[in-house]
């Protein structure tokens, strides 16, 4: 296991360095003066330009600049927002819980609905159930998030008025953020109706963000189940006269879950990408919306730093998934 | 810890207010997050709406719904005979807001005015660089560092500003968001505590609403300033619910989650007008889109040729096709909501046959030209490529061949400035301070050739009129001069004026007292919700 971990890390470190080089070059390859881009000052006297250029270290050799940048990152310095003047990492930590809360809900939704749907489709292979489930999954998988989100808002919030349109909680409620998770904070606030409001606000974004992982998980579960169901040991179990529930639920599902777990893990990276659109549509104040807003504000420091942090998070999540996979399925370690 | 206490206090307050049936909350679905809360540092409308028009006031204000100025924190002013000395008498008894984070001990005085303006001007002022990387872009952009001679406190209620040269738009400049007046007492306290950055995060001024709190990219909260010099507002709480997507803003408005929204999608406007719970206000925006010929290059150096081409453009078709009707064809280089706009000037009528004849008379045959189309959508021109195609088709009818070209946006702006540029350029302008000078001199003056003057057009008669108007301080006199200048412009036709886009503001039917600003900003003083 230790060797396996080392091997994974050996891949991870060069990948991270590669990403950091891309992030580092990003600002220098953009059209326009990098000093102006990074300082946010558009009107500058030559003296002021030289001063800022020196502050930012642009007057030193490029390699030194890069090593300095890397050194800063290793010490948690991902730059400072041009707009808010706050360290990028602080803003990230402030907003990340909102994204985690949404992503967790979405993945739970995807798993809770996706796995049973896949199992049913596999057991009833070729039936009308199977066709409906797989057809829906295909539609869900190919649904553009932006369109799907707006459609749900227009129908569910606008026409039916079942859920609020956007935001994390009704603006009538106003309480301090303790954990950053609105579902928990609203309970802690002790305000009547706050939790209900937070929950209602979560429904649509959860569905929108969970749709693609749900479709992927359902399809993956179905094919893994089909494969396992045709194995000898399942046939043996059936032959022994075990009830279908035991055969499918214990013997087959457990083994079918191995590839599904990887799929779920991989979906986390996909979700972060999906969060950018979902959060923007639903005005959900998480890191996805933060990145989009930063692009509109031309806050290059945040774009540069934020992308790197997000990339690091995705890499760490993938590492964790790999390790988990290694734990579940020892064969993979070799 | 302090922050936490403040938050809990605010929570208690909010709970109390939520429980009270008397509190009236107005929710504005704003289109983006403010860049900060110091209006001097930024240039975006989102910042001005969130800070300048809520928390702050200025010496002069724009009269609601117009581009004319009226007394604000300055009750009156006098201008010396040579036009170089402005003496402002401050309004007595103006109270700053009392907030969780600061309790003022005195009323507005001259120190506050001197502080607010000087920090933007003097590089040795400790507040000049208090936000690293921040710059006083508007202050510099309006040319004030070169125009100002001195800003002095005469006595507690009098401020004297001396200029180096005559500058008619000066008073209008002082009504702009960047010239918001802050509390020097608050600033001094922050400086003493080493928390200068807070001035840009927790603003405090004399305006109609006091800042309560901001949750990045999500919500800004204000409460009515109870001692506001203009009287307490009818709404108790003002909330900016930041909603970047226009379709979502519309849904929230429909669901009653907000009372008013800016910048709707053109495609949604019909549905908004049809909704019985909503009402829609519209007026021509303070902008213009134009096609600028290069008046230094033959055959475009002849006014007859430019005039002929103008008569060949079907502007209504552009307005219909690009804006789905949400714009009006432009006659003058300034928008109709601007003072001094001349209603008597007749537009070039669309007559391709006449245009063809005029071209022949001018001796132009087999003309082929380039038309530059902007690569981005701007409020005054949503789709320049489409507009260029329509112009291409129009010109084809009179035998003029058009090649459409484009560049990346920054490059487009830069390249189109060149004096020897080839082709006519589609571009536009949105007004900054409601002064005609900001259009006529900035875009068409001789000094702007090789810069903002994309027609490279230097007409002595026009330039003299505009310069004279800049130096005159009497509004009636200036109006006359600007109207003459518009007549010269129309006769000489350095541009084809294309359109003024409409600014459209949908709101709930129960919103009362909102006045649309021709300057494009959103202010909520005077607004009420009736049940």
UniProtKB/TrEMBL annotation, chain A:
Keywords: Cell membrane, Membrane, Transmembrane, Transmembrane helix, Transport. CDD domains: TM_PBP2. The keyword 4Fe-4S does not apply. Coiled coil: none annotated. InterPro entries: BPD_transp_1_N, MetI-like, MetI-like_sf. It is found in: Cell membrane. Residues 96-325 form the ABC transmembrane type-1 domain. The keyword Transport applies. The chain crosses the membrane at residues 9-30, 100-123, 135-157, 169-188, 256-282, 302-328. Its main location: membrane. Belongs to the binding-protein-dependent transport system permease family. PANTHER family: DIPEPTIDE TRANSPORT SYSTEM PERMEASE PROTEIN DPPB-RELATED. This is ABC transporter permease subunit. It comes from Sinorhizobium chiapasense.
From TrEMBL, chain B:
This is ABC transporter substrate-binding protein. Residues 69-448 form the Solute-binding protein family domain. Belongs to the bacterial solute-binding protein 5 family. It is found in: Periplasm. SUPFAM superfamilies: Periplasmic binding protein-like II. Gene3D superfamilies: Dipeptide-binding Protein, Domain 1, Dipeptide-binding Protein, Domain 3, Periplasmic binding protein-like II. CDD domains: PBP2_DppA_like. It comes from Sinorhizobium chiapasense. It comes from the Bacteria.
């Amino acid at each position: 296991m230790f060797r396996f971990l080392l091997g994974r890390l050996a891949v991870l470190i060069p990948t991270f360095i590669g990403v950091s080089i891309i992030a580092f070059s990003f600002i220098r390859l953009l059209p326009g003066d990098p000093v102006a881009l990074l300082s946010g000052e558009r009107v500058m006297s030559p003296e002021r330009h030289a001063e800022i250029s020196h502050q930012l270290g642009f007057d030193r050799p490029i390699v030194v600049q890069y090593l300095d940048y890397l050194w800063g990152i290793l010490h948690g310095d991902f730059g400072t927002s041009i707009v808010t003047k706050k360290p990028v990492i602080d803003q990230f930590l402030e907003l990340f819980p909102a994204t985690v809360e949404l992503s967790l809900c979405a993945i739970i939704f995807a798993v809770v609905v996706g796995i049973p749907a896949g199992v049913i489709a596999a057991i009833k292979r070729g039936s009308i159930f199977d066709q409906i489930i797989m057809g829906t999954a295909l539609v869900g998988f190919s649904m553009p998030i932006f369109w799907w989100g707006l459609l749900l808002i227009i129908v569910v919030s606008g026409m039916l008025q079942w859920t609020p349109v956007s935001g994390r909680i009704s603006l009538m409620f106003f309480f301090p953020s303790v954990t950053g998770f609105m579902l928990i904070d609203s309970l802690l606030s002790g305000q009547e109706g706050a939790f209900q409001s937070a929950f209602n606000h979560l429904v649509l974004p959860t569905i929108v963000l969970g749709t693609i992982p749900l479709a992927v998980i359902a399809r993956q579960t179905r094919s893994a189940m089909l494969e396992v169901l045709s194995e000898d040991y399942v046939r043996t179990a059936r032959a022994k006269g075990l009830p279908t529930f035991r055969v499918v639920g214990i013997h087959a599902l457990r083994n079918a879950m191995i590839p599904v777990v990887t799929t779920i893990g991989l979906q986390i990276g996909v979700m972060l990408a999906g969060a950018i659109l979902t959060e923007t549509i639903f005005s959900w104040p998480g890191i996805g919306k933060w990145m989009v807003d930063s692009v509109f504000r031309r806050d290059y420091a945040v774009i540069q730093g934020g992308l790197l942090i997000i990339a690091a998070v995705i890499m760490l999540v993938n590492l964790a998934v790999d390790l988990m996979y290694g734990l579940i399925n020892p064969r993979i370690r070799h | 810890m302090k922050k936490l206490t403040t938050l809990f206090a605010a929570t208690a307050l909010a709970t109390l207010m939520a429980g009270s049936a008397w509190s009236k909350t107005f929710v504005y679905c704003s289109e983006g997050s403010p860049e900060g809360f110091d209006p001097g540092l930024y240039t975006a409308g989102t910042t001005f709406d969130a800070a300048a028009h809520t928390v702050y006031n200025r010496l002069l204000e724009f009269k609601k719904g117009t581009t004319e100025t009226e007394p604000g924190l300055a009750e009156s002013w006098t201008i010396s005979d040579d036009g170089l000395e402005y003496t402002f008498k401050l309004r007595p008894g103006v109270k700053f807001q009392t907030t969780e984070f600061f309790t003022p001990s005195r009323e507005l005085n001259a120190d506050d005015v001197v502080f607010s303006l000087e920090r933007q001007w003097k590089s040795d002022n400790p507040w000049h660089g208090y936000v690293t990387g921040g710059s006083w872009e508007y202050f510099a952009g309006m040319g004030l560092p070169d125009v100002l001679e001195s800003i002095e406190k005469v006595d507690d209620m009098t401020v004297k500003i001396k200029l180096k040269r005559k500058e008619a738009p000066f008073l209008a400049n002082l009504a702009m968001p960047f010239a918001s007046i802050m509390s020097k007492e608050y600033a001094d306290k922050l400086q003493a505590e080493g928390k200068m950055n807070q001035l840009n995060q927790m603003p405090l001024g004399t305006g109609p609403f006091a800042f309560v709190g901001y949750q990045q990219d999500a919500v800004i909260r204000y409460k009515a300033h109870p001692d506001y010099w203009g009287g307490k507002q009818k709404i108790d709480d003002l909330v900016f619910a930041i909603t970047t997507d226009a379709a979502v803003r519309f849904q929230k408005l429909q669901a009653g989650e907000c009372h008013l929204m800016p910048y709707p999608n053109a495609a949604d406007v019909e549905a908004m007008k049809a909704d019985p719970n909503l009402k829609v206000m519209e007026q021509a925006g303070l902008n213009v889109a134009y096609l600028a010929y290069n008046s230094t290059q033959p055959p475009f150096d002849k006014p007859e040729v430019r005039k002929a081409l103008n008569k060949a453009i079907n502007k209504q078709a552009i307005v219909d096709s690009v804006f789905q009707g949400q714009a009006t064809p432009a006659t003058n280089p300034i928008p109709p909501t601007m003072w001094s706009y001349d209603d008597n000037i007749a537009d070039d009528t669309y007559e391709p046959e006449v245009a063809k004849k005029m071209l022949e008379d001018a001796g132009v045959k087999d003309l082929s030209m380039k038309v530059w189309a902007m690569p981005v959508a701007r409020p005054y021109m949503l789709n320049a490529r489409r507009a260029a195609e329509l112009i291409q088709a129009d010109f084809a009818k009179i035998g003029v061949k058009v090649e459409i070209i484009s560049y990346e946006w920054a490059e487009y702006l830069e390249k189109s400035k060149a004096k020897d540029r080839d082709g006519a350029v589609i571009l536009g302008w949105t007004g900054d301070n409601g002064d005609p000078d900001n259009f006529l001199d900035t875009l068409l003056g001789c000094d702007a050739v090789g810069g903002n003057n994309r027609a490279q057009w230097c007409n002595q008669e026009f330039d003299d009129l505009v310069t004279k108007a800049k130096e005159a301080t009497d509004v009636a006199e200036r109006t006359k001069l600007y109207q003459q200048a518009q007549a010269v412009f129309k006769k000489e036709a350095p541009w084809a004026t294309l359109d003024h886009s409409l600014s459209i503001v949908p709101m709930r039917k129960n919103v009362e007292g909102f006045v649309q600003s021709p300057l494009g900003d959103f202010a909520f003083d005077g607004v009420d919700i009736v049940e």
